[in-house]
């Protein structure tokens, strides 16, 4: 959804509105539900929801089991390793787009008729020293000022890191409290971030989604395997449908349609002044969908199929590399015919390169998706293990571990220890 949203911004930005104007009938993909195919903002909210969920589910489980020492130990190790797990792959993605820019692979993007692609252009540095200096600046700025000159789509990554630390801090503070007290903590944090409303990121995008993700992790540990039987069958489905509708709140010009204009007025009435209400609807929509999936047996069955497991496995490298491939592979394919015979005005000055026909663009997008996901699969196969090994080596050194622990199946270890007495192994606590 993020990739399709950026493709939409590049080639058909008018689809981000619910209609071209208040008096014009909407296009099919400007309508509720259909517009999710071209809007990626709610998917970014989902990334933060999952961040809150997966980083808190372990400490919550250990806290509920009374295993507080293991909970504190897990928080400490996760907090130390989390930075490396986010920063290293991002640094490599930045190095990739830096390399592409400095071999002049983005030259064509400077002259295309797509404003969004053209804004992603970066010059080829004149000297090797200048090139490495710009790379260092981009690597640092991604985590300090939140902007990467070579890939603007990485602006959310420092928020992911901050969000993870918010989870660890909350878990550290609440490991010793009972679950009901932790629910109160979530409620207070949620209300705090709701009223914060600071720009487009801090309150609605990061805070609300992270806190709600922790709330769902608490529900997971509370209901365990019975979650899918808590609510009557139609209710989770209705939650998913309602969430998809709310997540489709338009990025631009909500006043052009009655349904989105009504949503805008409602959200403005319950948020602080000068708040980016789009991020609030993204959050509420994605959170409602996630909650519906949590309680739905059928939705879980669909989303644990092999195809969705693959999409989930490669989602982070897809996010890291898609802008690089849009500015190179896709741009080359879409604008190559025009680049071979550049259009010029009556004074002989080169004009913007023109994209090919609609059929041409659809074929180019299909090839682009294949190349992107093929590259992401290779990334998961080669780059991710390399980054994981570096992080593990660094944390092992920090912990003072001289040698890595031997990795053996837990059940096999139990059987070996209990085999002389022929006793059935007992597991007193979850691993």
UniProtKB/TrEMBL annotation:
**Annotated Basic and acidic residues bias:** 403-431
Where are the membrane-spanning stretches? 33-54, 86-106, 155-177, 189-217, 229-249, 319-340, 361-380
Name the UniProt key words of this record, in alphabetical order. Answer: Membrane, Transmembrane, Transmembrane helix
Q: Which protein, by its recorded name, is this?
A: Acyltransferase 3 domain-containing protein
Molecular function (GO) terms for this protein are: acyltransferase activity, transferring groups other than amino-acyl groups
What InterPro entries does its record include? Acyl_transf_3_dom, Acyltransferase_3
Top-level taxon in the UniProt lineage: Eukaryota
Give the organism the record lists.
Paraphaeosphaeria sporulosa
Could you tell me which residue ranges the Acyltransferase domain spans? Answer: 1-336
Positions of the UniProt region annotated as Disordered: 402-431
